[in-house]
Design brief:
Strand content of chain B: 5-15%
Organism (chain A): Phoxinus phoxinus
CATH architecture of the largest domain in chain A: Alpha Horseshoe
CATH topology of the largest domain in chain A: Leucine-rich Repeat Variant
Mean pLDDT of chain A: 88
Order of helices and strands of chain B: HHEEHHHEHEEHEEEHHHHHHHH
Number of strands of chain B: 8
Mean pLDDT of chain B: 63
Distance between the termini of chain B: 118 Å
Oligomer: heterodimer
Radius of gyration of chain A: 19 Å
Number of helices of chain B: 15
Radius of gyration of chain B: 37 Å
Distance between the termini of chain A: 60 Å
Largest sheet of chain B: 4 strands, antiparallel
Number of helices of chain A: 12
Structural class of chain B: alpha+beta
InterPro entries (chain A): ARM-like, ARM-type_fold, ARMC7
Number of strands of chain A: 0
Shape of chain B: elongated
CATH class of the largest domain in chain A: Mainly Alpha
Order of helices and strands of chain A: HHHHHHHHHHHH
Protein name (chain A): Armadillo repeat-containing protein 7
Largest interface: A-B, 72 and 62 residues
CATH superfamily of the largest domain in chain A: Leucine-rich Repeat Variant
Number of domains of chain A: 2
Structural class of chain A: mainly alpha
Low-confidence stretches of chain B: 3-57, 66-70, 80-99, 250-323, 329-363
């Protein structure tokens, strides 16, 4: 990352623009994946966030979340996770209706996708968006995650529940889960 | 664990544990084939699975194949070959398995061979996205030759930062004759550097494979990591945003002064264009003559970006103007078209300007390499940005200010700035206290 400082802001902008153009023009899925991963990694560096925002890369990442290709989704949500750390990009994602798309990533079967989605939700939680990001379904989901064996998932979900949800929300979600499991599990459990 | 308990567990966990629990169930039944109707709440969606004993192994097959590389599977198969009931799964010794999972992010992926030239880096890399979730203070080091080189390994990693803890992971599945170590760094940045420098490097004949191990973090550490990252990004992006907006928008700022200025717009434009040229050539140390008359007019305009422009123009060895913009003190004769009576500039200021100007011009012209020049410009921008942020709400004509001369030396600049600040503080005192005239009452003297 230290090497990047040799490039001026405008050079960097042009390079990123080239990447976005290639992504839009190419037909090869493999190239698309590589470029998407590049962009997502560039989003990790704070000095690129401005350029990426101007290039509307937030929209690009959001579009990837509804793709069928799991790699696209994973890299897209990873890019959003990196971008949403910064305040203005976070606002841009919120304005473009990113919250429901990110929530849908919680049900992915890829660990990295789910982890990135949880972190992105944390970043996207503001006073205005709290109701949406800590919706009861989301809290229930987090509660289940906090009980798994996967330590990364468990840690992130615990941080979410502790720092972003109120006690009432968590209690309500817990009751909701218990109610559900009793009705759906087909094995008659012994009453003792 | 009774079958009922197992089923309770099923209702709460992810597929991995579900399958493991299912397997236990089948073993438990000792060959019987229970038909289990289970609902596993998978994230937000409920998943209903009906399985029979036979089908368990097939499910496991799919699961294992999708999550493990072929070679690791072979290795694990050999390790647990004595277990007959299980066809291909590696979940034989549950206690060992529970503590030592080989996660997907530990695996080394293949590098991408088909990158376009313009976006190829110096090293070949795999297609992978790094987020703050993946990075961690914990590093997992695999491929260390088992020849008793732990001390040297620790020395190597200690080069990159303070290592809080390290240990050998004996339970971790390792290649034959290699060891696996876990390093805990004090800071995430050290871990990042260490990983970059040591991954794929050869070490005593073996190739190291270094990856992050965030699963060893506690909840508190994860929380701290996220908070630190957020704080850093916001701070860093503020700095770069300022730089980004200052550089290309220098010209737009000068044009934006049109709205506030009452002077003719073209003068401003001339000023902007002249200033741009000025910036490019000022390292030669020659004053820009066409610049003078236009600057003269603009400086009188109520304009909070004035100091910025002033700074911008009085770069290295230009003769400086006093607040009224007139260059009548400058040594090269300049046509003073609209010279204003310098009523506000005190004689002391003039003298100072004169001496500074003489100093500037008499000093031998220093040739600055372009990069140094750009860096010094950047530094000055940062200083003026600080100034700009403070004076945002100023309206009306500013009081005559001391001209900001660049002393061409950082320490001298710092001193000059300090003096300037003190001067502003002093001048900002609201009222001048009436000079207390000492009225000495004649001391009663004794007449001897």
């Amino acid at each position: 990352m230290a090497r990047k400082n040799q490039f001026s802001v405008s050079d960097r902008f042009e390079f990123l623009q080239g990447l976005v153009t290639e992504f839009q023009d190419t037909d090869s899925d493999e190239s698309k994946e590589q470029v998407l991963a590049n962009l997502a990694n560039f989003a990790y560096d704070a000095s690129n966030v401005e350029s990426l925002r101007m290039l509307q890369v937030t929209d690009l990442f959001l579009d990837m979340l509804t793709e069928e290709n799991d790699n696209f989704v994973e890299f897209g949500i990873g890019g959003l996770c990196n971008l949403s750390m910064e305040r203005e990009s976070r606002d841009q994602i919120l304005q473009n209706g990113g919250v429901p798309l990110v929530i849908s990533c919680l049900s992915s079967n890829r660990d990295e996708t789910v982890l990135s989605a949880i972190t992105t939700l944390m970043n996207l939680t503001t006073a205005a968006s709290r109701a949406e990001t800590t919706d009861s379904a989301v809290v229930q989901c987090m509660l289940r995650f906090s009980l798994t064996q996967n330590p990364r998932l468990r840690n992130l979900a615990s941080v979410f529940l502790q720092d972003y949800c109120t006690r009432e929300q968590v209690d309500r979600a817990r009751e909701g889960i218990q109610g559900q499991s009793q009705s759906v599990v087909g094995i008659p459990l012994p009453k003792d | 664990m009774s079958p009922e308990c197992v089923c309770k567990v099923l209702a709460q966990n992810t597929p991995q544990i579900f399958l493991y629990s299912m397997l236990k169930l089948s073993l438990f039944e000792g060959g019987q084939k229970p038909t289990v109707f289970v609902s596993v709440p998978l994230n937000a969606n409920e998943l209903l699975l009906r399985t029979e004993g036979r089908k368990i192994s097939k499910l496991l097959d799919n699961y294992v194949h999708s999550n493990r590389s072929q070679t690791k599977m072979e290795r694990l198969k050999k390790k647990y070959q004595h277990v007959d009931n299980i066809s291909e799964c590696s979940v034989a010794n549950p206690s060992v398995w529970d503590t030592q999972k080989v996660y997907k992010h530990h695996e080394q992926q293949n590098v991408a061979q088909t990158r376009a030239k313009y976006r190829e880096g110096r090293r070949q890399r795999a297609v992978k996205v790094y987020t703050i979730n993946l990075e961690s203070r914990f590093l997992l080091v695999q491929g260390v030759p088992a020849i008793g080189v732990m001390a040297e390994l620790v020395q190597l990693f200690a080069l990159y930062g303070v290592v809080e803890e390290y240990r050998a992971l004996d339970e971790y599945p390792a290649e034959q004759f290699t060891e696996v170590y876990l390093f805990q760094f004090q800071k995430l940045t050290s871990a990042r550097i260490a990983k970059r420098r040591t991954d794929e490097k050869s070490f005593f004949g073996g190739q190291l494979h270094v990856c992050y191990a965030p699963e060893y973090e506690t909840v508190e550490e994860t929380r701290q990591k996220l908070q630190d990252r957020r704080r850093y990004v916001n701070r860093a992006s503020q700095n770069t945003a300022k730089q980004y907006y200052q550089q290309p928008e220098v010209s737009t700022e000068s044009s934006s002064t049109d709205t506030r200025a009452s002077a003719a717009p073209e003068i401003q434009k001339d000023f902007a264009s002249a200033r741009r040229e000025n910036v490019k050539s000022d390292y030669l140390g020659f004053p820009e003559q066409p610049l003078a008359p236009t600057e003269d007019v603009s400086y009188r305009l109520p304009n909070f970006t004035q100091p910025f422009q002033l700074q911008w123009s009085t770069k290295t060895t230009l003769p400086t103007e006093d607040k009224m913009g007139s260059l009548h003190n400058s040594i090269p004769p300049v046509p003073e078209t609209s010279k204003q009576s310098a009523s506000s500039s005190s004689s002391s200021v003039k003298e100072r300007d004169l001496s500074k100007r003489q100093e500037n011009l008499s000093r031998p012209v220093r040739f600055m390499p372009r990069i140094t020049h750009l860096e010094s410009r950047k530094r000055k921008l940062e200083e003026t940005v600080f100034f700009l942020n403070e004076t945002e709400t100023l309206i009306g004509p500013k009081l005559p200010e001391l001209p900001k001369v660049d002393m061409e030396d950082h320490s001298l600049n710092v001193t000059a700035n300090l003096i300037r600040q003190t001067m502003t503080k002093v001048t900002s005192v609201p009222e001048v206290k009436p000079v207390q005239v000492k009225t000495t009452t004649p001391k009663p003297r004794r007449r001897i």
